[in-house]
């Protein structure tokens, strides 16, 4: 018999829900899927051009999937970045305001 794990509760569930299902996260998910799929389509287009005899397209057919991997890495970083830590890191230190 298969037993189901209980749903996460408490602070952890709130953090996970906030990280993956916030308005910011949905925008990042949409942008990621759009960019990654566009890069993969462009890579496929370059493969078809390379197979028709365009030698330079072989380079581009490897480059576009590389851009898709960069999109994945950027998406992962932005989803897992703590917004409060980001704001704290971007704040100007008070000693910069002294003239």
Structural class: mainly alpha
Average of pLDDT: 82
Percent strand equals: under 5%
What characterizes the major β-sheet? none
Tell me the number of strands: 0
Ordered list of secondary-structure elements with their pairings:
Elements: H1 11-21, H2 23-51, H3 57-80, H4 83-90
Helix pairs in contact: 1-2, 2-3
Walk me through what this model shows.
With 99 residues, this protein is mostly helical. It has a domain at 32-81. It is 73% helix and 0% strand. The protein has 4 helices and no strands. The termini are far apart.
Annotation keywords:
mainly alpha, elongated, 99 residues, single chain
In short:
This protein has 99 residues and is mostly helical. Helices cover 73% and strands 0% of the residues.
């Amino acid at each position: 018999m298969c037993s189901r794990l209980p749903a996460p509760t408490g602070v952890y569930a709130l953090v996970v829900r906030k990280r993956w299902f916030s308005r910011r996260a949905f925008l990042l998910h949409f942008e990621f899927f759009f960019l990654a799929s566009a890069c993969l389509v462009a890579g496929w287009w370059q493969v078809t051009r390379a197979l028709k005899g365009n030698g330079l397209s072989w380079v581009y057919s490897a480059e576009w999937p590389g851009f898709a991997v960069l999109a994945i890495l950027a998406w992962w970083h932005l989803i897992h970045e703590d917004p409060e830590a980001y704001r704290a890191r971007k704040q100007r230190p008070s000693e910069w305001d002294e003239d």
